[in-house]
Design goal:
- Two copies of one chain form a homodimer.
- Chain A is α+β, with helices and mostly antiparallel strands and 529 residues long.
- Chain A folds into four domains: 287 residues, BirA Bifunctional Protein, domain 2 (2-Layer Sandwich); 57 residues, Rubrerythrin, domain 2, CATH 2.20.28; 45 residues, no CATH class; 94 residues, 3-Layer(aba) Sandwich (Rossmann fold).
- In chain A, the strands form eight sheets. In chain A, strands 3-11-12-18-15-14-13 form a seven-stranded mixed sheet.
- In chain A, helix 12 packs antiparallel against helix 13.
- The longest helix of chain A is centred in the first third of the chain and has 20 residues.
Chain lengths: 529, 529
């Protein structure tokens, strides 16, 4: 067997492949489509389901320190005021006055190999920039455009009734932090996970499903102690310089170790669902790129046909978000930490004063308010703090696209009559493949064999996504399954009636072996659980 | 053991129960909430996940004649023009001119024990109706209020950019009908299923999560042949009068049998996830209540504390929806049916004329256009038609609420010291319970026992949602699990170290038995697959 792999090289190939096989359709296609919206067909929605299920299993069900949340898309608008989205979640936009085409200013500059200029009041275009549609230089100044979709709740369209479609799932986790803490028997460190649709009114949606206006997120907010609390409790704070063992969380970890732990966890998950380590880039944002509240941020990137782009961002956000909601809602976001209270109770007045001084000095050195530092230290000594947070934030649609790109291959193989032919195959890992196993009766006109095959199909279908195919030569049936990425094909033949074994054919090696139903179930169980 | 069951009698009990145990919180609660929006906490989101998974398994993965779709919430606005929602999806609204309170006109009349009056131009209030808030009779005339949330796609808020949040998931299925048909190897009869969020800008959201503004639907559109096509192919059309066996679809079924088949399927599913037959009402809408395009509609209802209300509607909608999109999009929605073509080819000219005459007569008798009847018959004789549809449409939130109401019980049981005490228990079926099994080490200070218990926990957690609890007396740990509806508790004790058996305690009978891990896994497998 000679391999000649070729990932889809252009977006057109990819879009056409996705449509032809029922993975992804343009939304509202019969009405000419709607820019930036995509629907998932029969195979696409199973792929997405598998991605979501795998994430939820890894992040929630198999962990004792993470619980789930499923909040609404439309929330109280005050949430977006507190989070900063109402005022700051905007892209710079320019219009061409000649042809009325509209651009995202930074993207337009990029297409000229230039960067958007920052001014005192906002942004400006470098003078070389032209409209890429008509060539005119008659462009408006860049102006901020808020990316949140706005609607009105209740029957009157007035500002008091305005609400927004969430641009991220994360904020609901902060807004419901106290309710979850009070009802879930969790204590810091612990996390809250949420999956669901988010919406951004992108000026120029592009790159197929990669940058669309309606998309699906999988986000975790993992709440940790501030380093100063760790120090009081454990007397030390482990940092990356200590080369900690990251396999199991420890209570002396500072934020830096927790952040690295989550980067490792997430990278391992991507590998586990079939993106090879070599296809992923771990991009550590330099300090200058970080948002003002972020302490560190790592992007996990994948090499798409249109460039190396972000699948997930893992940010250490400090206590920014909970503090904002603490201030804006007037509801306390501090937690009480029994261990911290005990540690503080064991300190004498001198130790407490020294601790407060140390915190104040450090904050002052970082240019932060010394009064706030003293208040923070005082609160810690009462056993209280606002938790800090590590946020791994991933996109379902981007990942589905990466898995499709990664799975696609064309190979030259020996055909039935010795001729070389092209085999198109989607090499999905079993845990994400839309169909897990296809079942074929060798022939359809032998009632006993047919009935036996149906019995096997029914048994497998109780647990896995299965496909029944009784028409055409077995070789053709294999090819059909290769094209949709089914890892296993089972053929029930006359020998099955005698000894209960059937032929299992592996998609990738194209090798066949005989095994019993029990052995097959055990194999599949090991691959999908 | 004496049973004294009591379902939650008032909405307040239910709302408080849901909040206290982390099932359901008010959205944006820290900002005073937002009317008509509800969030699901750690246990609530697992309950919802189990409902969705069970529906998807029953409706898609275990059927060969249904495939899935996952379309966007925002679609091209022309879809809502075609479906009738843009013009007709409205509730009559009245305002009190004195206190400015706003009501849904039909609900306001109901509260007076009256019905809203229909007029030539719309609606009118009976003269007795007063504002239930301030008592004034100074009310506006009822006027139509469209329930779709409106937003603008792209940077300009102009009518051309207006779009709507979908008020139902069904329409995307019709809009993508051709794409699914062409890529999925299905042919009529077959179905397309979709789950997801829908939005209705209710004038008065009420009854907790039952009537909210953002909710989740599970809808199937099952496409069938028109009866006339069945008649041509099979020479007869089975109706309910033939008392057909509904266990397995047959190709002589007319729409009436298909409709009844889906009612039976859906009722069986509700029973399978734990709503007893006695708690469900199958309400067949009288002809006068039906929408103009519907041939029949059955509501599956549940007795909530606030009244008997609909969980699901199962409608026979004829070819209304596909025909509307056929007309509005200009894209053909007819399918070609090989068997029909063959049947028609076997008819002589006289038989074809007689068939056309029969169809025309029947349509004319029903007051329908004879010319349309002739066109329909001609199309059939070419082997083509627009499929008819049966639509089972269910709500995830309503069902979650019904399962919570149904599961709740308070019992008087014998306590540890022989005293009678009240046990609060949620009797969820294992297939929907947020936690499937809790694992307890008998004591936590025996490392060997502790480690063994952890091993069992890890093995179970690979497949099921598990809970680890090591603190407090075993009896107390049982009670905690009873309160969140965990069907099984496993205690690992000293005997486990000797013979590998552990204690399995059943939530409902409170009986205990000893079994091995293998036996336990087999039992759980049978209950959840």
């Amino acid at each position: 067997m000679e391999h000649k792999d070729s990932s889809p090289q252009t977006m057109d190939t990819l879009v056409s492949l996705c449509k032809r096989r029922g993975f992804i359709f343009q939304s509202s296609e019969i009405y000419g489509g709607i820019n930036g919206f995509w629907d998932y067909g029969p195979l696409g929605c199973e792929l997405k389901r598998n991605i979501r299920d795998s994430w939820w299993r890894a992040m929630v069900r198999r962990r004792e320190d993470v619980v789930g949340l499923d909040a609404t898309i439309i929330m109280h608008p005050a949430i977006w005021k507190a989070s900063g989205h109402a005022d700051g979640f905007a892209d710079p936009m320019v219009d061409c006055k000649a042809c009325r085409h509209r651009f995202r200013a930074d993207q337009l500059c990029e297409e000229h190999g230039l960067a958007l200029l920052r001014t005192a009041g906002g942004f400006a275009l470098p003078p070389e920039v032209k409209c890429t549609h008509c060539g005119s230089k008659d462009l408006t100044e860049p102006r901020a455009f808020n990316l949140m979709f706005k609607t009105y709740v209740g029957p009157v369209e007035e500002e008091g009734a305005a609400a927004y479609l969430r641009p991220e799932t994360a904020q609901a986790i902060f807004a419901q932090f106290r309710n979850v803490l009070e009802t879930s028997r969790q204590s810091v460190p612990f996390g809250v996970a949420q999956m669901g649709k988010s919406f951004r009114n992108e000026i120029n949606p592009r790159n197929f499903t990669f940058r669309s206006r309606e998309f699906e997120q999988m986000e975790l907010e993992f709440f940790i102690r501030p380093d100063e609390a760790v120090e009081l409790i454990r007397g030390r704070v482990a940092s990356l310089a200590d080369k900690p063992d990251l396999s199991q969380p420890q209570d002396d970890w500072g934020w830096e170790v927790w952040h690295k732990y989550w980067v490792e966890q997430r990278m391992a998950w991507y590998r586990a669902i079939g993106l090879p380590a070599a296809s992923l880039v771990e991009y550590w944002q330099p300090k200058a790129e970080l948002a003002h509240y972020a302490r560190a941020c790592v992007d996990i990137q994948y090499a798409f046909p249109f460039g190396v782009q972000e699948l997930e961002g893992i940010a250490a956000r400090g206590d920014f978000d909970l503090t904002q909601h603490h201030k804006h809602s007037g509801k306390p976001m501090e937690v009480f930490d029994e261990q911290l209270k005990l540690a503080a109770a064991g300190m004498d007045a001198a130790a407490r004063a020294a601790f407060t001084q140390r915190v104040t000095d450090t904050w002052s050195r970082d240019g932060r308010d010394p009064e706030a530092a003293r208040a923070f230290a005082a609160l810690l000594l009462e056993g209280k703090y606002i938790p800090h947070v590590i946020e791994p934030s991933a996109g379902v649609d981007r990942l589905a696209l990466a898995l499709l790109c990664n799975a696609y291959a064309e190979e030259q193989v020996a055909g039935d009559k010795g001729k070389t032919e092209t085999r198109t195959v989607l090499r999905f890992y079993p845990s994400v493949a839309p169909v897990m196993v296809a079942v074929f009766p060798l022939v359809k006109n032998k009632p006993e064999l047919y009935k036996h095959a149906r019995g096997i199909f029914d048994a497998l279908q109780r647990r896995w996504c299965c496909f029944w195919d009784e028409s055409g030569a077995i070789g053709r049936r294999y090819r059909r399954q290769d094209e949709i990425g089914t890892p296993f094909c089972v053929t029930v033949d006359f020998q099955t009636l005698e000894d209960g074994t059937m032929t299992l054919r592996d998609r990738d090696s194209m090798q066949q072996e005989r095994l019993t139903l029990e052995a097959l179930k055990e194999r599949l169980d090991g691959l999908t659980a």
